[in-house]
Amino acid sequence: MKSQLLVSRTEMLHRCKTTSKRKNEVYCENKVDICAIQETHLKEEEHFWIRGHKEFRQDRINRKNGGIITLVNTKALTAVETYRSRHDGETVDQDTECLGIKLILPSNNLPVYNIYSPPDKDFQFEPQVKQDNLIVVSTAIHLAGDIKI
User: What highest taxon heads this organism's lineage (predicted)?
Assistant: First the structure.
C-alpha cells in the first residue's frame, strides 16, 4: 500500500537550470516524497537543498554537464544509498549515471534508482552487485530517469 502511494507522489525533473527556479513550487504543490533529477549541471560547491529532504547526489567531476540527484522526504520515508555508478576510467560506459537508494518501508524495502543515459547509448540496467552495498534483486523496483529503452 505504501509503495502505491509512493509512486503517485514521485516527481521526475530534468535539467536543473530550469528546475531549480521552480523546485519549491513543485514540492509545495505536489507534496513530493521522492524527486529524481537528471542532468543537474551542478558543480560540487553548488547547493540544491529542500527543507525536510535528504539529498543523494552524484555530480560530474571535471565536466560541466551531467549529474543526478534524488531527494527524499525525511518526514515520510527513511532511505539509505546503496549504489553509485563509477566514472573512474575503468567503467565501460562513462556517460551513463546511476544512483540507487533503498527505501526502508514498514512491510519491505523498495530499491529506487535514478538513471541518466544519453540518447545515443543503448541502456542496460546492470548495477554492480557488491555485498557491502547491500544490493539485492527485488520483485519490486522503482526506476526513474532519462533513458532510451
Answer: Eukaryota
